[in-house]
Amino acid sequence: MNEAAYFTIQSKIQVLDRELMQYIGELMSGQSLTSDEHLQIMIDSTERELATYDYILKLIINNGNKN
């Protein structure tokens, strides 16, 4: 398994997860400087990016298990 790639992707997922939780918190609390519509776009984008990195991470793990 390419450990450097694994840790890089894992770090990116953690950062995106924190951003997502922040956006959701802002949306739910109404304490945001941006509009609800803009926050929802940011949340959707972050969720898609998280899904992409999660898929890449699974491919790295699966590839490592085959070797």
Explain how this protein is built:
This protein is mainly alpha-helical and 67 residues long. Helix content is 87%, strand content 0%. The protein contains 2 helices and no strands. The protein has helices spanning 3-29, 36-66. The longest helix has 31 residues, at 36-66. The chain is elongated and about 50 Å long. The mean pLDDT is 86.
Number of helices: 2
The SSE string, one letter per element, is HH
* Quantity of strands, as a count: 0
Low-confidence stretches: none
What portion of residues is helical? over 70%
The oligomerization state is single chain
Structural class: mainly alpha
From the alpha carbons, calculate the radius of gyration and give it in angstroms.
15 Å
Based on Cα principal axes, name the global outline: elongated
Task: Outline the biggest β-sheet.
Answer: none
Q: Strand content of the residues, in percent?
A: under 5%
The termini sit apart by 8 Å
Mean pLDDT: 86
Q: What's this model, at a glance?
A:
The protein has 67 residues and is mainly alpha-helical. It is built from two helices and no strands.
Write out key terms for the chains shown.
67 residues, mainly alpha, 2 helices
SSE blueprint and pairings:
Layout (H helix, E strand, L loop, with lengths): L2 H27 L6 H31 L1
Helix pairs in contact: 1-2
